[in-house]
Amino acid sequence: MSDEEDLILSELNDEELVEQMYDDLYDGLKDELEEGVQILLDRGWAPYKVLTEALVGGMTIVGNDFRDGILFVPEVLMAAGAMKGGMAILKPLLVETGAPRAGRMVIGTVKGDIHDIGQNLVTMMMEGAGFEVKNIGINNPVESYLDAAKEFEADIIGMSALLTTTMPYMKIVIDTMKEQGLRDDYIVLVGGAPLNEEFGKAIGADAYCRDAAVAVETAKSLMARKHNQLTA
Ligand code: B12
Fold it and tell me: What is this structure's pTM?
């Protein structure tokens, strides 16, 4: 154990450090993980690379062990807390690119679902790409999305679900939009680990996005299409 106590993160090479960060995320060691993030940034790693390779990579391992019954909710919460600490360091760096305003988005996790790491990440990446984003958090009923979208004059509504039991709620939101004649007012993007492209199509979303980078690309191209339609 004394080996671990004596470990000096800054003396590890990149590969060893990332491995160590996986362990620190797994063990929910927020301070150590934040230190690792800072060291990689100081070594010239792009913020997005730190995010995807060190943090999301580590969370994948946590997710697999949670699935397999090796980790339980309290441990995963600790890991999520550490992950958020790392993300907080990266957020201003991802956001500071100063891209021109690309559009406005409301994003939130659907009713019954409290997972928010993924949608926070999408928020950060979208802001980094010049979108204005209103993040309405977790456990959102239909009205929260629609009220926020109206108030914020959003172009895009983004919904996240991480549970197979909550993903059908996305269809309820879209169906309500149709009933109220609002469906064509917004681009609807959906995401979350259990979703796929077919599901996105089946519920009538404009697109399913596998990750935050795809979300940015998709939002940009759908916004361009929307503008072209408006000016045609
Ligand atoms: C962390 C975690 C938790 C934490 C959440 C903490 C938090 N603040 O978010 C805690 C411990 C609270 C938790 C609780 C539960 N969890 Co959980 N959790 C996870 C875990 C390990 C990681 C999720 C995560 O953050 N991934 C990292 C992010 C970056 O990835 P992501 O969310 O997929 O997001 C990316 C993309 O999907 C996409 N994206 C996501 N949202 C959106 C939205 C839009 C608009 C777009 C465009 C893109 C997009 O972009 C993101 C970035 O690239 C997953 C395992 C997994 N493999 O997903 C299980 C998992 C989702 N949980 C699961 C379960 C079962 C639960 C619980 C029911 C456990 C329990 N018995 O209590 C509860 C549910 C509580 C509830 N009502 O919601 C299951 C779901 C199984 C299923 N088939 O439905 C999973 C898959 C684990 C498993 N294999 O068993 N969990």
Answer: 0.84
